[in-house]
Amino acid sequence: EPEVTQTPSHQVTQMGQEVILRCVPISNHLYFYWYRQILGQKVEFLVSFYNNEISEKSEIFDDQFSVERPDGSNFTLKIRSTKLEDSAMYFCASNAQGGSNQPQHFGDGTRLSIL
Amino acid sequence: GDSVTQMEGPVTLSEEAFLTINCTYTATGYPSLFWYVQYPGEGLQLLLKATKADDKGSNKGFEATYRKETTSFHLEKGSVQVSDSAVYFCALSGYGQNFVFGPGTRLSVLP
């Protein structure tokens, strides 16, 4: 069964550094998402992306964050200048169609640790 | 805004016990409802879904019924196994494309 894959599985970065988290969505999917889960807390929506532009973003997704689909397969999340509170598990998700009744398929996540 | 509330865990059961994990939601309109499961060290996997009132989602012995009158989507399983030990997340998808998740309920099943 096709999967969403995320790399790296664990990223350790110094505070203030830039970090790029990578995702390869399922190949025929058109809608892409990033979520994060701070340790012990709920999964929170960051951003959705369709047709090469952001379609929705949360309050968490401030100017330090950006997303890009640099080619036909990758979908990246960049944090420009990391803060301690950015430490979390970051999940990428995708689905073939938008709409509230469509399940999203999640990757295994990237654990980001900011020192 | 939309929100999801789940019963606090952890929930510890013996093998073959009956499981209920409560989930209630607040949403504008008629959201779709989902249960996701997260096994240790893995991502979120769709367990089941229901897209309209009175729909019952089911998978791997788990069931949940979309109850509009009580805004609930409780997860049930008649006989749990050790392999069901995981964190279970209730989620809704409303007008936007994003999912709103509950806090998760950790289930531990003892042999």
Give descriptors for this structure.
heterodimer; A: 115 residues; mainly beta; seven-stranded mixed sheet; four-stranded antiparallel sheet; B: 111 residues; globular
Give a written overview of the molecule:
The complex is a heterodimer of chains A (115) and B (111). Helices cover 0% and strands 50% of the residues of chain A. Chain A is built from no helices and 11 strands. Chain B is mostly beta strands. Chain B is 0% helix and 51% strand. Chain B has strands spanning 3-6, 11-14, 19-21, 23-26, 32-38, 44-50, 56-59, 62-65, 75-77, 86-93, 99-101, 105-110. In chain B, a hairpin with a 5-residue loop joins strand 5 (32-38) and strand 6. The mean pLDDT of chain B is 93. Classes of the chains: A mainly beta (115), B mainly beta (111). At the A-B interface, strand 4, strand 5 and strand 10 of A face strand 5, strand 6, strand 10 and strand 11 of B.
What's the average pLDDT of chain A?
92
Strand content of chain B: over 45%
Low-confidence stretches of chain A: none
- The level of helicity of chain A is under 10%
Looking at the structure, what is the overall shape of chain A?
A: globular
**Rg value of chain B:** 13 Å
Number of strands of chain A: 11
Radius of gyration of chain A: 13 Å
Number of helices of chain A: 0
Task: Please count the helical segments of chain B.
Answer: 0
Query: Which structural class should the secondary elements of chain B be placed in?
Result: mainly beta
Q: How are the elements arranged and paired?
A:
The complex is a heterodimer of chains A (115) and B (111).
Chain A: E1 5-7, E2 10-13, E3 19-24, E4 31-37, E5 43-50, E6 53-57, E7 65-68, E8 75-79, E9 88-95, E10 105-106, E11 110-114
Parallel strand pairs in A: 2-11
Antiparallel strand pairs in A: 1-3, 3-8, 4-5, 4-9, 5-6, 7-8, 9-10, 9-11
Chain B: E1 3-6, E2 11-14, E3 19-21, E4 23-26, E5 32-38, E6 44-50, E7 56-59, E8 62-65, E9 75-77, E10 86-93, E11 99-101, E12 105-110
Parallel strand pairs in B: 2-12
Antiparallel strand pairs in B: 1-4, 3-9, 5-6, 5-10, 7-8, 8-9, 10-11, 10-12
